[in-house]
Amino acid sequence: MNTSSSAAPSAPPSAAPSPRTQVKRAANRASHDPAVLHAIIDAAWVCHVAFRDEHGVHCIPTACWRIGEHLYIHGSNGSRMVKRLADGECCVTITHVDGLVMARSAFNHSMNYRSAVIYGRFETVGEYGNEVSKRAAMEAFMEHLVPGRQEEIRPGNDKEYAATTVLRIALAEAACKTRSGPPEDDEEDMAVAAWAGVLPLREARGTPVPDAGCRIPAPDYVRRWQE
């Protein structure tokens, strides 16, 4: 499968912020535009965090959200990942697959996608941070998941927050790579009698399922879930 054929990126590339964020393979798909990076993060539910400890290299999926120019994650104070991230460099990745690109030759098949890679070091968000506190960050996470939910539920208590670590990483060293559009077949393959095109993929929202003990009418954000 070819994932390096030329296709116009969703935004024009700009200068890479560091050598390790310089995209060399299919560089025409690269972007360092903050708006592209923000959109990729904001559309994500989960990121993957790669880090190293005394047992080797790990890549852990975890929920993520964005506030300004930082990506946030959270976890239990006892989490191996939480303990290690503030101590060293890591790499965060996000990928959305938007379609399978069917070409007329095997090696020109591709995918339409949006992806981001972020390098750096996480920092701990304090209980009363000058910029964003732990509580404000977690409330923003809830709003990222389901806007309007935070106003209805019981907020976290002191014990729950004390057992939780919130971390953030700056978006200063990052690169995006995207592909969209039809297959790019070689001229000599255009006569091959094979279907060519794109098989789109998208995230589908299912019908909300109320808890057996719930007697509360569905609020607006539940009724709008499938819109």
UniProtKB/TrEMBL annotation:
InterPro entries: Pyridox_Oxase-rel (IPR024747), Split_barrel_FMN-bd (IPR012349). Gene3D superfamilies: Electron Transport, Fmn-binding Protein, Chain A. Residues 1-29 are annotated as: Disordered. It comes from the Bacteria. Coiled coil: none annotated. Transmembrane segments: none annotated. PANTHER family: 5-NITROIMIDAZOLE ANTIBIOTICS RESISTANCE PROTEIN, NIMA-FAMILY-RELATED PROTEIN-RELATED, FLAVIN-NUCLEOTIDE-BINDING PROTEIN. This is Pyridoxamine 5'-phosphate oxidase family protein. It comes from Pseudoduganella umbonata.
